[in-house]
Design brief:
27% of the residues lie in helices and 34% in strands. With 667 residues, it is an alpha+beta fold. The radius of gyration is 27 Å and the shape is globular. The relative contact order is 0.08. Its cofactor is biotin.
Length: 667
């Protein structure tokens, strides 16, 4: 077994590998850039080595710097994690030449499967179902348009060296093919240093389902079931689960058999994932093989009980697999939610800054039989940088059945506190309650179809509004009574707290009467209904647990002006609790209108303004490309919302932009 492992990565996956290595009694070495000097993985490792500036191209992607760190620490093995150098055959070759074990597959397998064109040819020869498409390289946009028309729209334009949804575009017509070719090539060149592009048929109503394989260096290969990864945005996975609610045992066996055949065809060893697109009739087509540990590997670990990182280490150390296919059992259900530094209220644009509050839910088993796991690489106070992927954590829930796992995930998301940056917790919580998701009716178009206009939060139902109104009245009742407890005041001179209040949520007003009740309050509505409320809420406590009649919920609470901000299951409302006379006056107050920004193009996210496509005085049409901003390794194209002309351009290409910074102004 190895004595010391260097993790050639950062963040969550570095912490994940360190955890297993320490459990096995193996020392660990972290590497870090300027931006990660105080990162969690640096603190957790036994040693840490600085490898360069913040930009990954000058640190985490620089093979020479990693080799220097290995030499300085005497590490005898390297785990690459995912991303960065994890699927770089040159890196694996360099380690092999130095006599350092690479905890992953052989360089030959990485190279064969890392090129999507080559991998599809190998898959076809191994008897694996493949998607119709043009597997030769495409030279320019016009050739892309011609080939796309021959295959038949819609098509998927993909980077040959791509991964993680980067360098991928769906084209529904010739205009989309032309623009998609340019965007995919630019994004691929920036992300991978390789701008080769190919095109394949886009399968409609597709599910993205992948098979986890594991093989040793002696030809023993098994598959560990499937993962459903259909909940995606811009080809980036957001919610995964294992097993899939769609796959039956016969399809699972057929997909697993083909995945193993492909792995054997390239002499694969270590953990790997074979990804498929599956149509509504359970026909499946090979997409690619990821020759590394997947981001979503925890759901497989939870349903199989197998630590994939441990198996990777043992295989790299020359051990045989300790189990066969007949020993693999799928137990229960697991769901993973990826917590991203992306603001769902701003069309999921990247958000950077400091985590002023970061309190994950408690890990471990719950009384209802569910289990929570949180894989993360940050702590409270950590800085979310524009230089790296926006993922903050991977929250996982396991239960004996699917709905149990979804319910446990919803409760865990309610209990997850993140402040200081924009994040997608409200969106994740909202998905858990969507009927279509709960029923398992998924495709990769789920988000586009269910949220066609983006995410603006969940609108409370009538029942939810009553709960929130009762909760706000309860908080106000407790606060009012706390306020009258002035030290030294005469009892007969204390202010009496009224029982009559008006709770306003949006355009709805609820007259209520409040009184003490057992350990909490009773809130009576004007229709005669009563809700009892008990809680552990205290002023300044941002997360409180409430018992509303028979229901237990966790809600994030804070002051918002004179009201109470309440966040729960994707809802984000401000409730005002006022006396009847004050409520009447508040009703007459004019509403402040937001500033008019219709003639301004503002930068929607922190990032680099990589290109400006128009000049001052130019006429522009609705939908025309105006500028391109790159943030967190993704290219974002900004388009004109309406017809007009450019009055002034404030930004310049290469400029670092802040959120809402002016790029250009229109007449």
């Amino acid at each position: 077994m190895f004595k010391k492992i260097l993790i050639a990565n950062r963040g969550e996956i570095a912490c994940r590998v360190i955890k297993t290595a320490h459990r096995l009694g193996i020392a660990t070495v972290a590497v870090y850039s300027d931006a990660d000097r105080d990162a969690l993985h640096v603190r957790q490792a036994d040693e840490a080595v600085h490898i360069g500036p913040a930009a990954s191209a000058q640190s985490y992607l620089r093979i020479a710097n990693i080799l220097d760190a290995i030499a300085a620490t005497g590490a005898d093995a390297v785990h690459p994690g995912y991303g960065f150098l994890s699927e770089n055959s040159n890196f694996a070759d360099a380690l092999k030449a130095k006599g350092i074990a690479f905890i992953g597959p052989s360089p030959v397998a990485i190279e064969a499967m890392g090129d999507k064109i080559t991998s599809k040819k190998i898959a076809a020869s191994a008897g694996v179902s493949t998607v119709p498409g043009h597997m030769a390289l495409i030279e320019d946009a016009e050739e892309a348009v011609r080939i796309a028309a021959e295959i038949g729209f819609p098509v998927m334009i993909k980077a040959s060296a791509g991964g993680g949804g980067k360098g991928m575009r769906i084209a529904w017509n010739e205009v989309g093919a032309r623009e998609g070719f340019h965007s995919s090539r630019n994004e691929a060149k920036n992300a991978f240093g390789d701008d080769r592009i190919f095109i394949e048929k886009f399968v409609t109503e597709p599910r993205h389902i992948e098979i986890q394989v594991l093989g040793d260096q002696y030809g023993n290969i098994v598959y560990l079931g499937e993962r459903e990864c259909s909940i995606q945005r811009r080809n980036q996975k957001i919610i995964e689960e294992a097993p899939s609610p769609f796959i039956d045992e016969a399809t699972r066996h057929a997909m697993g058999k083909q995945a193993v055949a492909l792995a054997k065809a390239v002499g694969y060893h270590s953990a790997g994932t074979v990804e498929f697109i599956v149509d509504r009739d359970r026909n499946f087509y090979f997409l690619e093989m990821n020759t590394r540990l997947q981001v979503e590997h925890p759901v497989t670990e939870l349903v199989t009980g197998i630590d994939l990182v441990e198996e990777m280490i043992r295989i790299a150390a020359g051990e045989k697999l300790r189990f066969g296919q007949e020993d693999v059992r799928l137990n229960g259900w697991a769901v993973e939610s990826r917590l991203y530094a992306e603001d769902p209220y701003r069309n999921f644009l990247p958000s950077i800054g400091r985590l002023t509050r970061y309190r994950p839910p408690a890990e471990g088993a719950d009384a209802d039989g569910s289990l929570i796991r949180n894989d993360t690489g940050v702590v409270e106070g950590s800085e979310i940088s524009m230089h790296y992927d926006p993922m903050i954590a991977k929250l996982c829930a396991w239960a004996p059945d699917r709905l149990g796992a979804i319910n446990a995930m919803g409760a865990a998301l309610d209990n997850f506190e993140v402040e200081g940056i924009g994040h997608n917790l409200p969106f994740l919580a909202a998905v858990m309650d969507y009927p279509r998701f709960r029923e398992g009716r998924l495709t990769t178009a789920f988000i586009a179809e269910e949220f066609p206009d983006g995410f603006a939060g969940v609108s409370p139902t009538d029942a939810d509004e009553r709960k929130l109104a009762a909760l706000a009245a309860h908080i106000n009742w407790k606060l009012q009574h706390r306020n009258v407890l002035i030290s030294g005041a005469m009892d007969n001179h204390r202010r009496k707290v009224s029982s009559d209040w008006i709770v306003t949520l949006g355009n709805h007003a609820f007259p209520v009467a409040v009184c003490d009740h057992e350990n909490g309050t009773a809130v009576s509505f004007d229709d005669g209904s009563v809700l009892s409320v008990a809680s552990d809420w205290l002023p300044g406590r941002p997360l409180a647990h409430f018992q509303i009649s028979a229901e237990s919920i966790s809600i994030k609470t804070s002051r918002s002006g004179t009201g109470y901000r309440l966040r729960w299951r994707g809802m984000d409302v401000v409730a005002h609790v006022r006396s009847p006379p004050i409520a009447e006056l508040a009703r007459l107050m004019p509403k402040k209108q937001p500033p008019d920004t219709s003639k301004l193009l503002l930068c929607p996210m922190p990032g680099v303004l990589t290109a400006i496509a128009v000049g001052e005085g130019d006429a522009v049409e609705a939908g025309q490309i105006l500028a391109t901003v790159e943030a967190m390794k993704m290219e974002n194209v900004l388009r004109a919302e309406r017809k007009g002309s450019v009055k002034h351009i404030a930004g310049t290409a290469g400029m670092n932009m802040a959120v809402d910074e002016l790029i250009m102004e229109f007449n």
